[in-house]
Amino acid sequence: MLSRYTAVGQAQQTLEEMAASCRVPVDTLVSAVTVVNPPDTANVRVTVSLANPRQAADVANGIAGRIIEAVTQDALLKAGQVQRAVPPTHAAGLGHALEIILAVSVGLIAAGGAPLLAESLVACRSVELGP
Fold it and tell me: I want to staple 94 with a disulfide (CB 3.0 to 4.6 A). Which of 55, 84, 98, 128 is the partner?
């Protein structure tokens, strides 16, 4: 039954309304919007991935509103938005500079550890066990 409401969230009409109200091309929303019903839940999760976090939050909240409208027309169901989408206050991830430092560190550790590992393997092979 919930698949009907995930379909509402991804419907062309819903995406066109969100595109118009949030000033995002429909083609962009087609690939940016994901609406799923997580297994074993009565929830619908709306995820929007756009370069502009404010637009992504607005689109997600708009889609959630459309789904709630569709549910309220169903006499057997009741719906409400559990949490409004808000744009992040800072970028997710480590940041480019920190990622480079981490990559160089891992590389140096791996390069420095390789000779020790090779030496250990050679030492293990040269050990003889008694009869």
Answer: 98
**C-alpha 77: how far from its chain's center?**
28
Provide long-range contacts, Cβ within 8 A and 24+ apart, for 13-19.
14/63, 14/66, 17/62, 17/66, 18/59, 18/62, 18/63
The alpha carbon of 115 is separated from its chain's Cα centroid by a whole number of angstroms, namely: 39
Helix H segments across the chain? Answer: 2-10, 12-22, 26-32, 53-72, 96-126
pLDDT in tens, the chain (131 residues): 557 788 888 899 999 999 999 899 999 999 999 999 888 877 888 999 998 989 999 999 999 989 888 887 776 666 667 777 787 776 666 566 666 666 765 665 666 666 665 665 555 454 455 55
Residue 34's CB: how many other CB atoms inside 10 A? 13
Q: Is the pTM of this model over 0.85?
A: no
Contact 9/67 with Cβ under 8 angstroms?
yes
Distance CA 75, CA 18 (A): 26
Q: What is the DSSP letter of 76?
A: T
